[in-house]
C-alpha cells in the first residue's frame, strides 16, 4: 500500500473488547508506522443512541484502550469528535446530499434500528449518523478506513456523498475512500454464533482480569456431540477453534490440533488450555499498561487535547474548501 491518510474511530459507548482487537485495532497497529493515522473518539455519534453520562465516561476508557494496545500518540492523532465543530458543520451541508430513503436502506442502520426496536421513533441524529461519518472521513481526506465488517455500508455511503459533492462543486474537492476490513470476519462470542458485542453482553474486554479470561474460555461452546475424548469432534462452529484461528499465530499447530480433534482423541480441556494461554498472554500486557496509564488521567486528557487541536486544523482546511465550493465564503 502506498502511504495513506487514515481516519477511523469508535463510538464511546463502552470500553473496547477482543472483537475490536480483531476487527480493527490490529490493522490500526500495523498502519501506524507507515501511514498518517487519525483516531477519533466518536462521542458525538455515541450520543445518537446512548446517555450522555455513559458517553462522557467512556471517552477516557476508549482512549486508555487505544494507548494500552500500543497505539502511539507520537504516531497517531487521537482526538475527540465533539471538540472538532468543523465536523458538525460539514455534516450539516452533507445532509442535503442524501435522502431519508437512502439512509433507511443503509444495512447497518437498518439492523441497528431493528435491534434497538426504534420502530418509527428513530432519533433523526441516529438515522443520519452515516452522514456525520462521511464528514469525519472526508474532513481528513482519508483514503483508507480500518474498521470491522459491519461498517462497510458507511464507507459506501461516504463515497456516494463524495461523488455527489464533487459533481456539484465541479471539481474533486473530497476524496473517495475504502474500508480496510480483516479477512477473518467478525469474532463471535463464547457461543460461537452471536457476534461479540457490548450490546450482546458476550464481550471479553481488553482490560479483562486473569479470572475473567479463564471464565470466558471455560464458558466457550465446542461441539455438543463431542462427549467423550475419543469421539470425533466438529471444528466448524466450534468457538475455541474460531478463536485459535484468530489468536494462535502458529497456523500449522492449529491445523494439527484440528486434525486430531476431528479424528477423536483430543479433549476440549486441552484446546481450551491452549487458547487460554494465548489470551492471557495477549491481554496481560494490555491490562498492565492500562492500569499504569489510568493512574494519570490528566496525562491522557493532555494527549487528547493536543490531538484534537491538530485534528481541528486539518478539518478546518477541508471545511473552508467545501464552503467555498458552496459559495459560502462571503467575507474572504
Ligand atoms: N461508526 C463507528 C462505530 O460505531 C464510529 C465512527 C464514527 C467511525 N465515525 C467514523 C469509524 C469514521 C470509522 C470512520 O464505532
UniProtKB/TrEMBL annotation:
It is an enzyme of class 6 (ligase). Coiled coil: none annotated. It comes from the Bacteria. SUPFAM superfamilies: Nucleotidylyl transferase. Keywords: Aminoacyl-tRNA synthetase, ATP-binding, Ligase, Nucleotide-binding, Protein biosynthesis. Its EC number is 6.1.1.2. One of its GO terms (cellular component) is cytosol. It catalyses: tRNA(Trp) + L-tryptophan + ATP = L-tryptophyl-tRNA(Trp) + AMP + diphosphate + H(+). This is Tryptophan--tRNA ligase. It comes from Iodobacter ciconiae. The gene is trpS.
Amino acid at each position: 500500500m502506498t502511504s495513506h491518510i487514515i481516519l477511523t474511530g469508535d463510538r464511546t459507548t463502552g470500553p473496547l473488547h477482543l472483537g475490536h482487537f480483531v476487527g480493527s485495532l490490529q490493522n490500526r497497529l500495523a498502519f501506524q508506522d507507515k501511514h498518517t493515522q487519525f483516531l477519533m473518539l466518536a462521542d458525538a455519534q455515541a450520543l445518537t443512541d446512548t446517555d450522555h453520562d455513559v458517553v462522557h465516561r467512556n471517552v477516557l476508557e476508549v482512549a486508555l484502550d487505544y494507548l494500552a494496545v500500543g497505539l502511539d500518540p507520537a504516531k497517531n492523532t487521537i482526538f475527540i469528535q465533539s471538540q472538532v465543530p468543523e465536523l458538525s458543520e460539514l455534516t450539516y451541508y452533507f445532509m442535503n446530499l442524501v435522502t431519508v430513503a437512502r439512509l433507511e436502506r443503509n444495512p447497518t442502520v437498518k439492523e441497528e434500528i431493528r435491534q434497538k426496536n426504534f420502530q418509527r421513533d428513530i432519533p433523526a441524529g441516529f438515522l443520519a449518523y452515516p452522514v456525520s461519518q462521511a464528514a469525519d472521513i472526508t474532513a481528513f481526506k482519508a483514503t483508507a478506513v480500518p474498521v470491522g465488517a459491519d461498517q462497510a455500508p458507511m464507507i459506501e455511503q461516504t463515497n456516494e456523498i463524495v461523488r455527489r459533492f464533487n459533481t456539484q462543486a465541479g471539481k474533486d474537492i473530497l476524496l473517495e475512500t475504502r474500508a480496510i476490513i480483516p479477512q477473518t470476519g467478525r469474532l463471535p462470542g463464547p457461543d460461537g454464533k452471536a457476534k461479540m458485542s457490548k450490546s450482546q453482553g458476550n464481550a471479553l474486554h481488553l482490560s479483562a482480569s486473569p479470572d475473567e479470561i479463564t471464565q470466558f474460555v471455560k464458558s466457550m461452546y465446542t461441539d455438543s456431540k463431542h462427549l467423550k475424548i475419543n469421539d470425533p469432534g466438529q471444528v466448524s462452529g466450534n468457538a475455541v477453534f474460531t478463536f485459535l484461528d484468530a489468536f494462535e499465530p502458529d497456523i500449522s499447530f492449529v491445523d494439527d490440533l484440528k486434525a486430531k480433534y476431528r479424528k477423536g482423541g483430543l479433549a476440549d480441556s486441552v484446546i481450551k488450555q491452549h487458547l487460554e494461554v494465548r489470551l492471557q498472554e495477549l491481554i496481560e500486557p494490555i491490562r498492565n499498561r492500562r492500569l499504569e496509564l489510568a493512574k494519570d488521567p490528566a496525562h491522557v486528557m493532555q494527549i487528547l487535547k493536543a490531538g484534537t487541536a491538530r485534528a481541528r486544523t486539518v478539518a478546518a482546511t477541508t471545511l473552508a474548501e467545501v464552503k467555498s465550493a458552496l459559495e459560502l465564503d462571503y467575507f474572504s
